[in-house]
Each structure stands twice: as C-alpha cells, then as structure tokens.
Amino acid sequence: MHVFVTGASGFVGSAVVNELLAAGHQVLGLVRSGKGAQQVKAAGAGVLMGDVNDPAILKQGATTCDAVIHTAFNHDFSQYKANCEADRKVIGTLGDVLAGTGKTLVITSGIGLLSYDRLVTEDDRVGAGSDVVPRAASEEAAAAVAAKGVNVYTVRLPPSVHDAGDHGFVPMVINIAREKGESAYVGDGQNLWPAVHRADAAVLYRLIIERQPELKTLHAVGQTGVLFRDIAAAIGRGLNLPVASKSGDDIAAHFGWFAHFAALGCQASGQKTEDALGWAPKGPGLIQDIDEHYFS
Prior knowledge:
7-stranded parallel β-sheet
C-alpha cells in the first residue's frame, strides 16, 4: 500500500513512517524543511515538500496514495485555538479529496479531551464542543468528513507518547522543574496520565490501514493511567531535585500556562482497540522510559 503521511519527520509521524516501511508499504512523507526531507528520505520514504495548511499540497499527496495518515499538528500552545482550527481545515481538505474514493483517512486526536471522573473508552465522545475544548475541532472535522462518506478513523493519543527524543508534555514538565529548581505535582498528585510508547502507537496506525476495523475511534493506550506524582518523582530523580506538592496560587506560580495539563486527570482504556485489531502494546512504561532515556 502507498501511504501519505503528514508530519512525517515529527516525533509520532517519523515512527509511523518507519513502521509502515518495515511492514513493506511505500510511504510519501509531507515535510516542510530540508532537514525533515533528509530524515524522511534516509528512512527510505518518498518526500513531498510543502506546508500541511496548503490545500494544493494535501490534494497532491492524497490523490497519489492509497491511504492517508494525518499526524501533523502545530504544538505552539500560545496559538492553541488557532492551531486546532487549522487542523479542522486540514482534515476537511483531506476529506474533500478522499470523498467517493474509498481510501482510508486516519486522523489524530487526544485522549485528554475526555477528562471524566471514570474510565473512558473508545465509545466516549467529547462532551463539550471546540468553543470550550479547542482540540475537539479535530474530532468534529472527522465527523463532518465521515458524513460525506469518507472512511475515516480517529486515533486518540494519550497526554504522554513517550520514547527517546520526546519533545511533548514530559519534557515540558522537566524544563519547568529545571527552571524552578524543584519537581512538582498538584495537590496529592493522584491525577492520572494515560501513556503509550511511541513504537506501539505507530503499530496501531499501521494496523488500522491494513485491517480496516469496524471500530472508528481507537485509543493508543499502553498504560491506563500513571500517577502524576510518580512522574514528578522520576523527574526529581533525573535532575537530582527535591519533589514538592503545589496548591492554591503556587500551582500557577510553578507551572504557568501548563497548570491545566499538570492537573489533568484521565483514566483511559484501549481494550476495544486491542480487541478490534489484535494490537498489543509492548514498549516500556512511562516511568521506566523517563528513568532510562530522558536525562542521558
């Protein structure tokens, strides 16, 4: 199968590219920099230079391939709402190109949108719209293109997709700890972050395009929930810093704009995903990965 992958040089996208190639698929990777192009080419994939927000580029990639995996997303949180709306447009454009073709589209969302006081599953939907939860725009866009007959799947990634080279939430917490001189958690630190190893997530994307499950929303969950207090403790070990609880105004003083994510609590199941695809996460857990790879 010939697969078009957006964000092909990114943390998740590059793992997806490598997984597809190892399974014998051909890949066309969308990149926007010379460095990214070299990385994708060295992996053995074809390169399409351009911006994910350019409809003409998206049309070129989607029309020349058999399936599309969309992993690109701008993680500049100072423009979070705008970036989420941009992702809505990208998914809409891909949907317009693929409508009526029977080709598969796999888009990416976040499990953290489902911050409920219970175990969340693939059957759960985001309770609030994108006006309240900006990242819901991606799932709203998936629903819109599905209504046009597009064979679309949504992969929900946990707050931590971890591996060496991670530049997501855990490194952000590490940088805050380093800056503040202590590693912190909110309250009693009992809030939970689901997690998955990057290689396991990549396998899930591959299995979706190969097996075309009836389940349309899938959870890339390797661990149902990791205590944030344990994450803070691992960071404290790695940086040789004290570990402390924060409450009241001290939460914002320590975490700044990241306070919402530091307090995020979500237990998530991926059981239906595992049952639908025979997907079995095998990578190390988040704390082991932090201890072994995040401070070398």
